Amino acid sequence: MKTKREDNNDEDEVQEFPDLKRQKKFDDSSLLPAFLASENALHTLASYDDDDDDYEKEEKMKEASGLRGKDEEGEDDDDDDDDDPYQEFNQVKRSRMVEVRRDCPYLDTVNRQVLDFDFEKFCSVSLSNLNVYACLVCGKYYQGRGQKSHAYTHSLEAGHHVYINLRTEKVYCLPDGYEINDPSLDDIRHVLNPRFTREQVEQLDKNKQWSRALDGSDYLPGMVGLNNIKETDFVNVTIQSLMRVTPLRNFFLIPESYRHCKSPLVHRFGELTRKIWHARNFKGQVSPHEFLQAVMKASKKRFRIGAQSDPVEFMSWLLNTLHGDLRTSKKNGSIIYDCFQGELEVVKEIPNKGFFEKKENGDFQNKVTTADEHADVILETYRMPFLMLGLDLPPPPLFQDVMEKNIIPQVPLFNILKKFDGELVTEVVRPRIARMRYRVTRLPQYLILHMRRFTKNNFFIEKNPTLVNFPVKNLELKDYIPLPAPKENEKLRSKYDLIANIVHDGKPGEGFYRVFVQRKSEELWYEMQDLHVSETLPQMVALSETYMQIYEQQQQ
User: Fold this and answer.
1) Residue 192: CA count within 13 A, CB half-sphere
2) Chain CA centroid to CA 320, Å
3) Count of other CB atoms within 10 angstroms of residue 295
């Protein structure tokens, strides 16, 4: 039982040290989480995280308040008002309210010349990819915008005040902390995340207008150079070729098409596609850095920065990986198969001895087979899908001519296409000796051909220099290979036009790749090698050591 004087003494003590009582309560409660240790810590944490984390914080605050209620039953009623957890929570909530202003005095410090959103979204100090902001004055990336964050520190040290959240695209002024809502920043948002409407996508192939970069140079949307980070020209030529495939490009220009997909490779490829075709870029080239990081991760470093690889292998891996990521569970289709998948009928002649040995080992998958114990050859017939066709070049001459130079042979494309006429026999050694005959039973909308120029033996890689003569327009396949009869009310579409031609220059293993692509709006040809883009004549396309081609089916 306290006397009146003791009560007065207690009140005086509370007035002199108003925070003492609250401190004591917090120290006594061992169940409270660490983030409720002090009022200052609450405010710092709340302002550090992004707006999307509010709901999670509310749940933690309510849990903490419930714990406090259990531990502090029996305290004096006079203290409940001072230590009300909801009062503190509401105070934090009020501190979370971000003021939105249009009149920021620092907007004239924004420097668009230094902005580059092609690289990975990592903080330049902590190397974290969570809650990253870009400084619009110097272009560097920093984490957070709270009082203990790297962006806040940079704003005080360097005097740079305008920052954009790389995920939400909201712009803030630091250290003041208010959000800037100004339409003059929309062009930066469009460069950070290019957007296309379906109407704009449909008009892309009709657009003849050039765009202008910030440095005054002109560029064509869709015909921009790609930065060679380090021996990544094999990736650049593959991407430039796939950008000419209209259905594939249109699919990836609209993110809603693959919103269900969780693969980082698919989303990075879509971002790269939108940047290449964007008409309001700050510069006339694009760096595929984020896409290459996704490729390295998805391929387990089979394709990586700093190591030259084969564009045919990369194209095959990329198409199959994108298909595997995009296909739905109900059916095995995807935009990749819709564009590139055809069908072959394969007839395999296997020596009788080898056939029965394999059958005993259990490695042989039985298909449509005609076998006889006394026959010398077993015929096996089956159908298989394909995404690209490999063509064999004739061997180059061994001897030099009178001028002491090797003759560079030439071969028409139609001669090497006879491999798929169903009659020409191709001998294979692996996985076992067999004689193969191929016949095309279904043509794809986009036909990919690759010439087998490189042969690898135990000692080195050899390159076949044979030139292939091919038509740039009106490749008529039905004159050279037998094709299946079309269905009723359908027209046989066997004419193809070239849209991309990948070329290898230099020695095997040391050279570089470039690509010729067609711009549909004007039917002009462009030669592209990394950042170098120049217009060229159609006649020049056929005078090179072609390595891989993409043909488009005529729809008329």
Assistant:
1) 22
2) 14
3) 25
Q: What letter would DSSP give residue 61? A: H
Token pair listed for 34: 């660490």
Q: What is the DSSP string of 360-420?
A: HHT-PPP-EEE--TT-SEEEEEEEEEES-EEEEPPPPPSSB-TTSSB---EEEHHHHHGGG
Residue-wise over 407-443: b if at least 16 C-beta within 10 A, else e?
eeeebebbebbebbebeeeeeeeeeeebebbbbbeeb
> What is the identity of the amino acid at 287?
S
Distances (CA, A) of 131 to 52, 189, 190, 492, 493: 10, 17, 19, 55, 52
Q: Which two tokens stand for residue 356?
A: 């029965």
Six-digit token string for 234: 């094999």
The model's pTM: 0.75
Q: Quick check: bond before 247 cis, omega within 30? A: no
Residue 328 burial (CB count, 10 A):
10
DSSP string of 23-45, one letter each residue? HHHHHH-TTS-GGGS-HHHHHHH
Summarize pLDDT for 296-325 with one digit per residue, the tens: 998 888 888 888 888 899 999 999 999 988
Nearest Cα neighbor of 468 from 550, 549, 406 is 549
Place of tokens 């042969």: 455
Q: How many residues does the chain have?
A: 556
Q: What is the pLDDT of residue 317?
A: 92
Q: What is the pLDDT of residues 419-444, one digit of tens each?
A: 888 888 888 877 778 888 888 888 89
Convert 498-528 into a string of H (helix), E (strand) and C (coil): EEEEEEEECCCCCCEEEEEEEECCCCEEEEE
Cα separation, 448 vs 341, in Å, equals: 10
Query: What count of other Cβ atoms lies within 10 Å of the Cβ of residue 315?
Result: 25
First to last CA, the chain: 102
Q: Is 553 left (phi over 0), alpha (psi -120 to 50) or beta?
A: beta
- 9-47 as b/e: b if 16+ CB within 10 A: eeeeeeeeeeeebbeebeeeeeebeeebeeeeebbebbb
For residues 54 and 52, what is the distance between their CA atoms, to the nearest angstrom?
Answer: 6
Q: CA–CA separation, 33 vs 41, rounded Å?
A: 12
Q: Which amino acid, one-letter code, is at 452?
A: R
Token duo for residue 142: 């920093």
Mean pLDDT by 10 residues, the chain (556 residues): 51 47 43 40 37 44 45 41 47 62 88 87 90 92 90 92 91 89 89 88 83 84 86 90 92 88 90 90 87 90 84 91 80 84 87 54 48 68 90 78 68 87 81 84 90 82 85 85 75 86 84 88 87 87 87 84
Instruction: Name, in order, each residue with C-beta under 8 angstroms of 302's C-beta and a sequence gap of 6 or more.
Output: 309, 317
